[in-house]
Write a structure and sequence with these properties.
The chain has about 525 residues and is α+β, with helices and mostly antiparallel strands. The protein contains 16 helices and 21 strands. A hairpin with a 5-residue loop joins strand 7 and strand 8. The N and C termini lie far apart (about 45 Å).
Length: about 525
């Protein structure tokens, strides 16, 4: 008779759901406990009248990660989730009135950059594209999909020449100067550091690989990323797994130094052979999940927290220039903006990201009626600091409107009030983070090696999510769940107490650079 060891997963973000899917497909009895009312973690939607306003990540890249995940559990991603590839990756605006679109078609991007900055800028972009691809390919299988190799092991796996190409000891901002003398283009490609909550003036040049991930394609998901989480839940339930929402875990229980289950705030104790914590690892270190697991992972210094954000989700109308789905409005002085963030202040002249959630292949509103939008500016991760300035929703909204009005974009309010989130709100939702949305900031050559691995110091306890290896962002968080499941299954099998069900494909996933990209 096949044993089905009970496994508890704390948190129904993409890391927790990915881990639960892999474990359920291998025969584990998986229960996911989620404090909120729906799955998705940071990929949340809030109701405002008839509208579901997205309040989390909106950019979906590296689709092959999800193609492989669904294939491994006997499902088809394209049947489960409706996606649309975007021709325009993003539109970028500068205070001097200039603007630039980047496209999924690389040749179109080259042409656009040539028209924007001249032939030398286009040639710099070609070289940048080659080098960012090389960085991605050097680290994809050797680092991002492995159980946290150290620097020496990575050099052995990837090879010395590949290690030299990723330029870990060069700052991203400095490296971009080798390709783009135009400060506007340095600003554009430096912004990719913020995709993992980092400062482009402190982050290593290795983060150029994020640009390649986006150039491989951006997809719009019908229903947004919350719909992806629900699709993953449907597959989990098909495999026999269970999600319990509005079920906050108060502590991780141990017996004789090993995990024995979780205790809920309701007082219920759920016995489990293993636990995967899909939460910020600082929640463990601060004792927010019980004193027994405080030492499970190394603590993260407060100064190494990633960026937080101020977001405003709203429905209404926008007048001014046509906007595609993804739009970036840059600040006048990028260095000053990040100095203010580093000193713990919300920038007075921030860079703004605006997602027009209902637009796909057209920069115009074809639906008629109110549209849904998400606006975001970076903020310091001081959500647990009582001295941090009070950020009233009206002040946050006014700051965003000021940035947009500079570019001729005017918000015409809808019938229902906007929803605003600040670092304090994010800390309340994701305790221990201080409102930091991406775990550890990637600052310095060794930052990527300092994130905790899936295995912890407590037998039976594993971690997933953006605060652990391989890092933040929806695809990386999903890979972290795969790595946590792989570690757990390996450890269970080594005890001879578990015999996993054979599934096609094994636990590993094909490289995103090899599987079905456009």
């Amino acid at each position: 008779m096949r044993l089905s060891p009970p496994v508890a997963v704390i948190g129904a973000g993409f890391g927790g759901l990915a881990a639960a899917l892999r474990l359920a497909a291998k025969g584990c009895a998986v229960t996911v406990f989620e404090a909120m009312s729906e799955p998705g973690g940071k990929a949340r939607a809030e109701r405002s009248g008839p509208h579901a306003l997205e309040a989390g990540p909106t950019v979906f890249t590296l689709k092959p990660v999800f193609d492989a995940l669904f294939a491994e559990i006997g499902a088809n991603f394209d049947s489960a989730v409706k996606t649309t590839p975007l021709a325009c990756l993003a539109r970028h605006f500068w205070p001097d009135g200039s603007q630039l679109d980047l496209f999924a078609d690389h040749a179109r991007s080259v042409e656009a950059i040539a028209a924007f900055g001249g032939p030398k800028a286009a040639e710099g972009f070609r070289r940048f594209s080659v080098d960012s691809r090389a960085m991605f390919e050097a680290l994809d299988l050797s680092f991002m999909r492995r159980a946290k190799p150290g620097p020496m092991e990575l050099a052995r796996i990837a090879g010395l020449s590949a290690m030299l190409r990723i330029r870990p000891f060069t700052k991203l901002w400095d490296a971009l100067g080798d390709y783009f003398p135009d400060p506007r283009l340095r600003q554009l490609f430096g912004r990719y550091a913020t995709y993992c909550g980092s400062n482009p003036f402190l982050a290593p040049a290795t983060l150029m690989l994020i640009a390649h991930a986006e150039m491989e394609g951006v997809w719009a998901i019908e229903g947004g990323l919350p719909a992806l989480a629900k699709a993953m839940l449907r597959e989990l339930e098909r495999l026999g797994g269970t999600l319990r929402c509005n079920a906050r875990v108060a502590s991780i229980e141990t017996r004789q130094g090993r995990v024995s289950g979780v205790a809920l705030e309701s007082g219920e104790v759920f016995a489990a052979e293993a636990v995967i914590a899909n939460a910020d690892t600082e929640a463990l270190c601060l004792g927010l999940l019980g004193d027994a697991v405080r030492q499970a992972v190394p603590a993260r210094p407060r100064e190494m927290r990633s960026l937080s954000a101020i977001t405003v989700s709203f429905a209404g109308h926008i007048s001014g220039p046509g906007l595609p789905m993804h739009n970036v409005f840059f600040s006048r002085d990028y260095a000053r903006e990040f100095r203010q963030l580093a000193h713990g202040h919300v920038p007075d002249d921030p860079t703004l990201y605006l997602c027009a959630l209902d637009r796909r292949d057209s920069p115009m509103n074809r639906r008629g009626g109110e549209e849904r939008f998400l606006a975001l500016i970076n903020a310091p991760p001081r959500g647990d600091d009582p001295t941090f300035e009070t950020l009233e929703p009206s002040r946050c909204q006014a700051r965003i409107e000021t940035v947009l009005s500079r570019h001729g974009v005017r918000i015409l309010p809808g019938r229902h009030p906007p929803r605003t989130m600040t670092p304090r709100d994010f800390e309340a939702l994701f305790p221990g983070s201080g409102g930091g949305l991406y775990g550890r900031a990637t600052h310095g050559a060794m930052a990527s090696f300092q994130r905790p691995a899936a295995r912890t110091r407590i037998p039976g306890l594993y971690c997933a999510g953006g605060s652990v290896h391989p890092g933040a962002g929806v695809p990386m968080v999903t890979l972290s769940g795969s790595l946590a499941a792989e570690a757990l299954l390996t450890d269970l099998a080594s005890t001879s107490r578990f015999h996993p069900v054979a599934m096609p494909g094994g636990i590993s996933t094909p490289s995103a650079t090899m599987a079905g990209t456009r």
